[in-house]
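Tutorial handout. Part one gives the primary structure; part two gives the three-dimensional structure as tokens.
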Amino acid sequence: MDPAGKVAILTGGARIGQAVAKALAARGCALGLTYRESREAAEETASLARAAGVGAVTCKVDAREESQVAEAVGKIGSELGRVDILINMASTYSHTPWERMTSRAWSDALDSNAKSAFLFALKAAPWMKRAGAGRIVNFTDWTAVSDRPRYEGYTAYYAAKAAVAGLTETLALDLAPDILVNAIAPGPILAPPDLSAEDGAKVIAATPLRRWGGAEEIAKAVLFLIETEFITGECLRVDGGRHLY
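Part two.
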């Protein structure tokens, strides 16, 4: 699919999402940007998109609530005229030691990471079906698609991202042949702001390419999965070989 003249919904558009949005806008793709807390980032990205000559709509939405997701997708589709692409980037990443694990922490992780992707797919797919084609790109995690939990204290997060990988496969089957559904599994892309120099050095040492990838690498992967015509149900690791260690 050529993104030019199409409309893409991006959920969770801060940091890496901004790079993805800019790449799509540069290709002539209009943007529907949803956010829960990062309004400033969403509005900034929308302004850049409009400056690039494409339409942009922003929506505040709790991606865990079906009614809010339905309203947001409907608003974007109505104002921009169509929905062709969905990029599910909304996510939470919380460290919860087992001794403090609760059913609430479990539900929060599953809802924020997996339920949100399901709800947006549920509401966006009919728009894509009417247009005759569509693309959905979910975001999982390199650990979940490599069957290697690796880090203690992330039980709920790992399970949620594994659920996103499973959702990607079953959606690809259910929505074929009109809609292609794939996922990206990022590894060390951007260093967290609070990461110590020592821990950052450990990450680089454990990554065969010996560096952080940068948000642009994710944008390239998203464009690839939008433009492909014969790949569906796949999870693409963008991790600099991190899964090999």
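Part three, for discussion. The domain at 7-244 is CATH 3.40.50.720 (Rossmann fold). The chain is about 45% helix and 15% strand.
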